[in-house]
Amino acid sequence: MQDKPLFILAALAVLVVMVILMVGVGGFAQGGEFNRKHGNRMMRWRIIAQAIAVALILIVVFIRGH
């Protein structure tokens, strides 16, 4: 049960990735000033958040395996 907070943190990280991705894709679909100004930044944030989420998921899997 000591991995439960870590599991919740990993789930939240996945949700953060999803929100960033949806905002980035939505901005790309609409185009305009928001996409020109923030499109690349949103995708960089997504990559960083996704790396954190994957690392947390791997840690949870490692802890549950032992």
TrEMBL record:
Keywords: Membrane, Transmembrane, Transmembrane helix. Residues 1-66 form the HIG1 domain. It comes from the Bacteria. The chain crosses the membrane at residues 6-26, 47-65. The keyword Transmembrane helix applies. The keyword Transmembrane helix applies. This is Hypoxia induced protein conserved region. It comes from Paracoccus alkenifer.
